[in-house]
Write a structure and sequence with these properties.
The chain is mainly alpha-helical. The chain has two helices and no strands.
């Protein structure tokens, strides 16, 4: 399993590798279960990190006494 201190990027890379291996159809049932369990933990970790980043972005957008939500547009 991945280390709790791993970066978001490392967790995402590991998740992608697990999915690729699972989709290959070459894993035993036992390995599929192990990969699924690890992948589920990674999805949870990545989701939590994304939620934390979203909260930080909202704080940065804060104006005056009110919080104005603005969507994050990666194309800008």
């Amino acid at each position: 399993m991945a280390n709790k201190q791993e970066s978001f990027e490392k967790s995402l890379e590991r998740l992608e590798a697990l999915v690729e291996q699972m989709e290959s159809g070459e894993l035993s049932l036992e390995k599929m279960i192990t990969h699924f369990e690890e992948g589920s933990a990674l999805v949870e970790r990545c989701s939590k990190k994304l939620s934390e980043v979203e909260l930080k972005i909202e704080k940065l957008v804060k104006r005056g006494e009110s919080l104005e939500r603005e969507p994050f547009d990666s194309e800008e």
